[in-house]
UniProtKB/TrEMBL annotation:
The modification 4-aspartylphosphate is found at D371. Keywords: Phosphoprotein. This is diguanylate cyclase. Residues 502-632 form the GGDEF domain. Residues 322-438 form the Response regulatory domain.
Amino acid sequence: MSKVVDQQFEAFKAHGSLPSPRGVALQIIQLADRDDTTIGQIARLIGSDPALAGNIVKVANLLTHRGSRPIASVADAVTIQGIKSVRQLALSLSLVDAHRHGACAGFDYQKFWAHSVCTGIAAQQIVAKMQVGVADEAFLLGLLSKIGRLALATVFPAEYARVLTADNLTEAEHAAFGIDHNQITAGMLADWGMPKLFQEISLYIERPEASEFHEGERNWRLLQLMHFSDRLAAVCTAEASERYRLIPRLMLLATRVGIESGTLIEIGDRVIASLREWSALLGIFVPALPPFEEMLNADSMASELLGLDALPGSLPVGFKLRILLVDDDRAIRLLYKTLLEKSGHTVTTACNGREALESLQASVPQLIISDWMMPEMDGIEFCRELRKNPEWHKIYVFIVTAQESTDRLIEAFEAGANDYLSKPINPKVLAARLRSAQRIVQMQEAQEEDRLQLRQFADELALSNKRLQTLALTDALTGLPNRRYGMERLEQEWAIAMRAGRPVCCMMVDIDHFKAVNDNYGHQLGDEALKLVALSLQQAARKQDVVCRLGGEEFMVICPDSDLRAGYTYAERLRQHVAAQPIQAQGKSLQLTVSIGLTDNANLDSTEAMLHQADTRLYAAKASGRNCTVVG
Ligand SMILES: Nc1nc2c(ncn2[C@@H]2O[C@H](COP(=O)(O)OP(=O)(O)OP(=O)(O)O)[C@@H](O)[C@H]2O)c(=O)[nH]1
C-alpha cells in the first residue's frame, strides 16, 4: 500500500475497533503460520476454548467423507484436516460468530458472509484446478477479500448505511470516509501479518485492470482468478433475477482467464455443493441454486448478454462480416453471437456440422467459426464437406480446438480450415484474428470485384468490337454487306468451290441510267431508289446467295454451287424482278432496270480474273442496250 493509504488506514482505525479474530482463534492463526508448529500444539490451543473446539470437531466431521469413522477429538480433527485448514476454520468461525449481526442498517451481514465464504471456496477450487498457487491460502484470501466492508459497517454503522445506497460504492466511501473498503481490507490483512501479495490482491480484486502486475506473470494471473472467484461468488449468492444479469459477464471473464465452459460448470457445481455445507455449518443463509449448467443455459440470460461490451478493437470502417458460428454449447453460441454482433458483424448459428451445412444452402457467410468436437458432424468433417462445394471455397474458416498438437492442427488445415482458435477463446485474440481474417476477406472480395469488372469490360469490348466489325463490313445506306465483305466472301467461296470441285457464280449488277434518277429527282430520292433496288435484289436471292453493294449503283451477287447455266437463270430472275417492280419513292413511281455481267469459276485461276470477266460482261450488257444479262 502507498504511504498515503497507510496514513488513511491508521486514521480510520482510530475511529473504533475493527473486526478481528479474537483470543484463541488469533493465537491459532499465528501458531499455524509458523513452520515448526506441531499438531499437538494446535490441538492443545483449540482445546483451551471449548466452544471453538466443539465447532472444529463438528466441521471436521462435516467436511470429511461420510461413512468414515467419526472424528471425536480435536487432535484427530487437526490431523485429518491439516494445520492450515484448521487455521481457516478458526478464523472464519471466530469472525462469523462475532459479526453474524451488526448495527449497520442496510448492510446484509448474512449475504456478506455468504459472499465471503463463497469467494473463499471458489478461490480454493479454481487455484487448485488451474495450479497457480496454494489452494488453502486462496481460501483465506477469498474469505477476507471484502473484510473492509464489514469494518466500515462496524466502525461507522449509521454513515455506512447511507453510503450503501450509492451507485459507485468505492467513490462514495472515499467521499464519506477518505478511504474505501478495498484499502481497509489491505490494511487489515497487513495488520494480521498476511503476505504482502494478499494485500495487493485485495486492493485490486474488484478492478484487476488497475493493478500494476504485468500481464501474464504469476501474480497477475492469481489476481485475475481471485477477481473471477469474487464474481462467481456474486453469481452464487445473488437472487435469481440478479443472477442472470451477472452470468454473461462471468462467462466472458471465464474465457479471459482461460476457463472454458465445461470447467466453469464443473467448478460452479463444486462451489455450490461446498457452499451448501459451509452455510449449514456457519449458520449463514444462501439462496437455493440450480445446477450450474442450467444457469448458463437459462433463456433469461439471453437478454442480459446484450449488456456486454463489443470485442476489443475497432472494425475497419464499413466492413462487417457475415459470420456463421458452429458450436454445440448453447451458452458459448449465445455469448459469442452477442459479442460479435456488438462488434458490428451479422451472426447466424448452428449446433453441429450438419446443421451448418444446411444453413449454407440458405445463406453463405464470409467467415465460419466452428468448434472441433461436436455431435453428429464434427468441425473437421464439416470443413471437408464444405470445401467440396466450389461456391464455398472462399469462406474463411476458423476451427476452434482445445488441443494444439501439431498433428491436430495439420489435420484441421488439411480438411480446409484457414486458421484455428485455441479453446477457451480469448476475446482479445479472437478480435485480433478476426481483423486479420477481415483483411483477407476484404482483399478477396476486392479482387473478385476487379475480376468481375474486368470481365464486364471484356464483354463490353467484345460487343463493341463486334459492332465495329459489323459496321466495317456493312454498307450504311442499304444495310447490305459492303465491298470489303463481298471481296473476302468471294475469296472464301472460291476456295471452297475449288477444293470441292464445285462451281460458283458471280454477277455484277448495275442500275441503268441511274445518273438520270439523281439528276431528275435529286440525290435523296436516288438514295431511296438505291435502297429499294437493294431490297428487291435481296428478296429475289436464294438463302445461300450473297448480295453486296460494291459502291455507287453497282452490286455484286455471289451464287455458291451454281454453274453458268443455273447462274444465268438466276440472273434473269433477278433482272426481271427489278424490272417488274416500279419503285415507289416520295410519291413518285420509277421504273428502274439493271444490267448484269455473269461469270463462273470454270477455266479461271483467281477471283480477280472472275471479277474482271464479270465486269467486262457487264459493260457488254450496257453496250448491248441495258436491262439484260451477258454470260460470255
Ligand atoms: N443517290 C445516290 N447516287 C449515287 C450513289 N452512288 C453513286 N451514285 C450516282 O450513280 C450515278 C452513276 O452514274 P453512271 O456511272 O454515269 O451510270 P448510269 O447513269 O447508271 O448509267 P449506266 O450505268 O451507263 O446505265 C452517278 O450519278 C452517281 O452520282 C449513292 O449512293 N446515292
